[in-house]
Specification:
Layout lengths: L1 H17 L5 E9 L10 E5 L13 H13 L4 E5 L10 H8 L11 E4 L8 H7 L3 E2 L3 E3 L7 E4 L11 H4 L8 E4 L5 H4 L7 E4 L6 H11 L25 E6 L11 E6 L16 E9 L2
Parallel strand pairs: 1-12, 2-3, 3-4, 4-5, 7-8, 8-9, 9-11
Antiparallel strand pairs: 2-12, 6-7, 10-11
Amino acid sequence: MLLLLWTTTNLQVTHSLWFPPQLVVTRHTIPITGLPPALADAKIAVLSDIHFSSHYTHISQDFLESVVSTVNNLEPALVLVVGDVVNNDPGSAATIGRVLAQFKPSAGPHGTLVVLGNHDDRAIVKTLRELGMEVLVNEAKYPLGQGLALVGLGDVWLGDFQPQSVLDGLPPSEPRIVLSHHPDTANALRKWRVDLQIALPFVGAVLPLLHRIKSLLPQWLHEKIPYLGYTNVMEDWDLVYGLHDVQREGVVEADGDPANRVLITAGVGTTPPFRLGIPPEVVLLTLVPRS
């Protein structure tokens, strides 16, 4: 088992370092109760987990430029960047920020919205805002006009997750998309209407595999195997990739839908520096009224 894990890990790291990752576009249609007619068929591009660092060469400048080109060719109304913009390297925020500033959402210069993840640092907020991005920390914006709130929540690992401070202030009947980097926060958000939560981390099947391996091994081996510590970032392993429904608490009257919907994406970059089975992705959402 140990030899297999070591061999697989090293093969994947070698592949990640020497072969350019093949970016894919994953499309989802998202029905929303009460969506304003003017926003029917609105398109939103989503990316996350860039993990950019001047000390971390896994993601090249050429690959980042291909991400920008791919997103712009989709002609989205908004671009959402859902955490882990940098990889524990706040000094690289200006470099990656200049890349993100190349997005051209049709909603205009305030159409690129960013939230922080556990590998980010509060220090990057000022830099990204100066470069034209809307960095949301427990606040709601209306870049597509009134009738659809875009809610960005602070990261739970940074100690900034305060959903009540913003969600309590929204009318229960108002549609909203919530950006909250950590999937485990979906359980805390069951108290409110969430038409769609966009979250991470999935990182190309690596975390679920490591979690499975860890569950099969005795405790004393956990600290001896590379990367097993990464599994400590999550508790709810039912939310690993794709779209999920999370039951709301209490009686739901605001929109008649008893479940919140959660989207877990595969991310653009990754840490640890390898993937298993799932390529980096940009997600394109198409919003439609729920019939």
